[in-house]
Amino acid sequence: MGHIKINNIEIYAHHGVLPSEKEEGQLFFIDCEFKQDSFPTSDALDETIHYGEVTETIISFTQNNRFDLIETLADKLTTHLLLTYSLMHSIELTIHKPFAPIDATFSDVSVTLTKTWTTSYLGIGSNLGDRKNNLNIVGNEIHSSDFIRELATSSYLETEPYGVLDQPNFLNAVIKISTFLSPYELLNFCYNLEKKAGRVKTRHWGERTLDVDILLYGNDIISTEALIVPHPEMHRRHFVLTPMCEIAPYTLHPIKQSSMIELKESLNARSRML
Q1: pLDDT tens for residues 31-48?
Q2: Which residues are catalytic?
Q3: Is the pTM value of this prediction over 0.85?
């Protein structure tokens, strides 16, 4: 993966909380490092990202917008760059504000933000209402989002209920996506999809119009009260492993260090023993 760095881009702009900062402005300096999946195999300009254009984009965006916080500027600018340059895989941006209004001797104030297109997998399921339409909501919302790209979707799989058996059969699927949303931003996206489908909380493992779970987020391992990734039950569920094997059979589980095919074979062997 190739890296390109642009350091100390000097920009006079109007960001800050104080009225004087917005009216009079001040100097900012921006460092930018971005990665693309590969460097060009030829000398063709369309196979790489033009760093001169990236510099002009950074200057234009910084001068034509005004934010109270340089944290907000960093967030909006990194998003703008990732959406503008399709070959850009990730970006790290540092914004320096050396003339910040601080009543002390200091050399610089800076914030650094990194965003990366990350491959993730969502497990989706429905067993109430129009099940197929409920699952289609997920794909439709992904297609309308600037921050998520659909890479593959498995077939819809009819499955018997898991855990609580006295309920209708499910339709299940897995969607492979690429996103630069953080895991928690992606989790919020999933919650909003469930709300759009009219999901109401019932019993644990019970009926639902739509269930959207983050199965994998790159190779990240997350364990918090709000989110556990990889999904702690995915290696025990046929309705997850079967569609995973359809679209990503050799993807490794970051904790088990086994491929989806290996996990499915292991689950099948345990099932035969019961």
Answers
A1: 999 998 766 666 677 778
A2: 97
A3: yes
